[in-house]
Amino acid sequence: MQTLQNDRYLRALLRQPVDVTPVWMMRQAGRYLPEYKATRAQAGDFMSLCKNAELACEVTLQPLRRFDLDAAILFSDILTIPDAMGLGLYFENGEGPRFERPLTSMSDIQKLGIPDPEVELAYVMNAVRTIRKNLQGSVPLIGFSGSPWTLATYMIEGGSSKAFTKIKKMAFSEPQALHLLLDKLADTVILYLNAQIAAGAQSVMVFDTWGGVLSPRDYRDFSLQYMHKIVDGLTRENDGRKVPVTLFTKNAGMWLEAIAATGCDAVGLDWTIDIADAKSRVGDKVALQGNMDPSMLYAPAARIEQEVQSILSGFGAGPGHVFNLGHGIHLDVPPENAKVFVDAVHRLSAPFHQQ
Ligand code: 1CP
């Protein structure tokens, strides 16, 4: 077992004592950093960047050179899975992801195979191994995947969506087709995350960005049920250390108890819930990750620090908090403001961890 110089992120996820609250930022590598834009230009397009282990490693490490972050996250995308299933992922300039062959019917879904992560997604495992080597035990590496429901939205809508009409039409008129897809995706995600863990990911996170567009009953049926299956199928220990699992559903504050009951180690929170409320509801079962509004990073330094203080006070004393934004960092945020945020979490959290 390689010793980690800084393991406070893993300790906090397991609700063990830490010296200060660990912090990382969703989408911490990306276009708000000029050095990211330079490396992406060198790679050509976004998927070429993901497929080049050296360059993917470089952009993973870029935010860690600027900010005192307590974790690195694999540079990749949730849409690698549908791409590996043959849907033909491409990016239209400035328009987000698109698929050449979206799924339209039960027969499309029946034809889908389960990709072998060591074959179709071997480039992701190479990136994981390269990043682990280059981190040299400084901070842990987070692996990730999209949730089955969130992946299915892109695969059926053909790209990003606002109203999710195509997938909801399938959910409510051909539910057995959608359940077959979600079940295949859950099996794929289990193999994919276990392969990332075997390659060196020290913790994994499942992003359910669009679970919050469902009614409570449909959320359990079409999203949570499959995340539960994933939690049950994951390798939870590797190389003598626990591998914590974090589930993040955006807009799911009302369903925290159900998410915590899946057996995950931590629940990611967006900013629409008060962290004190979340802690009183599920803090004896899981760690909490979050939850500053990413738009707060447009504010002056004093306002950012005030918000960090208020979230720290909301969580209160004791372990079990990983500080983060409630969703990804915006692409026009000044990097200096991200530094104010990260430094404030460490400086202002020390009093909450005195024994
Ligand atoms: O350079 C570019 O133009 C591409 C922009 C970009 C980046 C930097 C995309 C396309 N993906 C990524 C990287 C990425 N995506 C990471 C690793 C970087 C890091 O965190 O440091 C991660 C974890 C993701 C995850 C991801 N991709 C999610 C889940 C998290 C979330 O933000 O909700 C989702 C929904 C995606 C889909 C996706 N990929 C890219 C874009 C622009 C989108 C969002 C599209 C949409 O809003 O529907």
Architecture overview:
Pfam families: URO-D. Belongs to the uroporphyrinogen decarboxylase family. Substrate binds at residues 27-31, 77, 154, 209, 327. Keywords: Cytoplasm, Decarboxylase, Lyase, Porphyrin biosynthesis. The record marks 77 as: Transition state stabilizer. By secondary structure, this protein is α/β, with parallel strands linked by helices. It has a domain at 19-265: Alpha-Beta Barrel (TIM Barrel), CATH 3.20.20. It is 47% helix and 13% strand. The protein contains 15 helices and eleven strands. The chain has helices spanning 8-13, 34-43, 46-51, 53-66, 80-84, 106-111, 122-135, 148-157, 165-173, 175-199, 216-233, 256-260, 275-282, 301-315, 335-349; strands at 72-73, 89-92, 96-99, 141-146, 203-208, 237-238, 241-242, 245-249, 266-268, 287-292, 321-325. The strands form three sheets. The chain has a seven-stranded parallel beta sheet. Strands 2-3 form a two-stranded antiparallel sheet. Helix 13 links the parallel strand 9 and strand 10 (287-292). Helix 9 (165-173) packs across helix 10 (175-199). The protein binds coproporphyrinogen I. Coproporphyrinogen I is lined by residues 26-31, 40, 46, 73, 75-79, 96-97, 144, 160, 207, 209, 328. Coproporphyrinogen I (1CP) binds next to strand 3.
